[in-house]
Write a structure and sequence with these properties.
Elements lengths: L1 E2 L5 E5 L2 E4 H21 L8 H27 L1 H6 L14 H19 L3 H9 L2 H15 L13 E2 L10 E2 L2 H20 L7 H17 L8 E2 L2 E2 H21 L4
Parallel strand pairs: 1-4
Antiparallel strand pairs: 2-3, 4-5, 6-7
Length: 256
């Protein structure tokens, strides 16, 4: 078993702290942009570099705003009410993927609609590197020592000092499980992106895969909120599974 003693701060200049968590998000954005550019070279989608930059900007903006607001008002509402300025402390960690993803999709769809860009076709390309960015984000969570797993006696379990037990119980490194989950999703999308498929296939495959695998990982992660025996993360993933499976079934299984 291992003891988590990583310092989440890279360096500090006065009141300014540069943290690995923020660095992981920045690396995720840069990597995603580079991969999208590579895929677009072999694509027939007509989009300028300026338009692509705009879509990335608005999507990342939606991800950050939606992710932070979702975390504060879904997972930590009592604390947010008593400490409203904590909403802006994104460097401390704390982002909800589901709300961030939803707002990023909305911003991207609105931009594509305004500029007459095929949303599903472009969405299939942009979604491909997203799991890698999410994997880097989970690395940031691990370095922060947050989002720890449930107690475990497995040999790779970790003692997390920030856990409620103050590091006295070994726990699943669920952040690492999340990293592996996202790498699996990226591998599937990468295999599909160069193949012929209906517009939207990769986007909805991501939605289905993320929802399904996240539900599984939630069984190892220490839940923040449980309702009717189901964690909040699982509740939020159920619509993803239904939407992703429904779209794929309609377009590939159900005969019209």
């Amino acid at each position: 078993m291992f003891y988590h003693n990583l310092n989440p701060v890279i360096f500090k200049l006065g009141f300014l702290e540069i943290r690995y968590y923020g660095l992981m998000y920045l690396l995720g954005i840069i990597l995603s942009y580079a991969i999208v550019l590579r895929i677009l070279k072999g694509s027939k989608i007509k989009i300028t570099r300026h338009q692509l930059n705009d879509i990335f900007f608005y999507s990342v903006l939606g991800l950050i705003i939606g992710g932070r607001l979702g975390y504060c008002f879904i997972y930590t509402l009592p604390y947010t009410i008593s400490h409203p300025l904590s909403i802006f402390e994104i460097w401390q960690g704390g982002m909800s993927f589901h709300s961030g993803f939803a707002l990023a999709l909305l911003f991207g769809w609105l931009y594509c609609r305004k500029h007459k860009i095929p949303f599903l076709e472009l969405g299939d390309i942009i979604i491909t590197p997203v799991p890698l960015a999410l994997a880097l984000g989970r690395v940031g969570n691990f370095i922060n020592g947050e989002l720890w797993g449930r107690p475990s006696s497995l040999p790779w379990a970790f003692y997390f000092p920030l856990a409620p037990d103050r590091g006295t119980l070994p726990r699943h490194p669920s952040q690492i499980y999340e990293v592996l989950k996202n790498i699996v999703i990226f591998s599937v999308l990468w295999l599909l992106v160069r193949k012929k498929h209906k517009p939207g296939t990769l986007l909805f495959s991501f939605i289905l895969l993320y929802g399904s695998l996240r539900i599984i990982v939630e069984f190892f992660r220490q839940p923040e909120i449980i309702f009717l025996g189901v964690t909040m993360g699982q509740w939020l993933c159920i619509p993803m599974v239904l939407i992703g499976a429904g779209w794929l079934a309609k377009n590939y299984i159900i005969k019209k």
